[in-house]
Amino acid sequence: MQKKSTQLGHFSKSGLLAPSILSANFAKLGEEVKAVEDAGADWIHVDVMDGHFVPNLTMGPMVVQALKSVTKLPLDCHLMVSQPELWVEPFAQAGADWITVHAESTVHLNRVIHQIHECKCKAGVSLNPATSLTQLEEVLDIVDMVLIMSVNPGFGGQKFIENSFDKVARLNKMRGQHPFLIEVDGGINAANIGQLKSLGADVFVVGSAVFSADNRANAIQKLRAGLCNGLREK
Ligand code: DX5
Ligand code: ZN
To answer: How many domains does the chain have?
Structure first.
């Protein structure tokens, strides 16, 4: 399989905002996605939970398929499911652009990454807060993105785990010649996004910071301002 990650460098310059629809109003999902797209979001983050790998149930490929018709933004599907190999193809067929699986959810991580690439999607690997970066060593040359969970997965609106700053910095050092993106997910807000950017993160998942705000556009603007501060610190 041809390695796809070689053209990823341009993504990371100013930081990408990926609003998580987990915190959106599900009764108005299409409108919510349009609103954040119009406000300048870069990706739409789709949190998929199976009630087994994490203690919550959310959405499946049908939601991804429906969203595909309302937005042009890349759909960033974060699979918090057991046996992710069963779900790669359905999500790819539904229109996922990025598919991220948890290292803890499969004993065949290498195989699942190749499966994602064979479905013509970009492949991400996510680590729970308690999982060591060493779990990634043997796949760093084939992943397009590493997602650092900065909360325990399962729910939006949780408090950012402070140790994640150091984890992002250590992962950034491990990048070397491997051009994968670093995504951070959980508890991100205008106050901590700049620091994460300055430590090397490229993609920022933002749920409640965007969808709990009265004005989505203002919330996105504040996060962008936070990102600019991070760029200045670099
Ligand atoms: C947690 C999810 C996150 C979460 C982000 O399991 O993966 O995407 O919804 O929401 P906030 O930004 O509210 O922590
Ligand atoms: Zn997520």
So the answer is: 1
- End-to-end, the C-alpha distance of the chain in Å comes to 35
65 within a domain of the structure (yes/no): yes
Q: What is the pTM of this model?
A: 0.94
Whether residue 5 lies inside any domain: the answer is: no
- Is the distance from the beta carbon of residue 124 to the nearest atom of ligand 1 less than 6 Å? no
Which residue is it, tokens 């203002």? 218
The domain of 224 spans 16-233
- Tens of pLDDT, residue by residue over 99-112, are 999 999 999 999 99
Q: Token pair 């087994």 is at which residue?
A: 52
User: For residue range 28-59, what is the model confidence (pLDDT) as tens digits?
Assistant: 999 999 999 999 999 999 999 999 999 999 99
Q: Which of 75, 78, 185 to mutate to test the pocket of ligand 1 (most atoms within 8 A of CB)?
A: 185
CATH of the domain at 229: 3.20.20.70
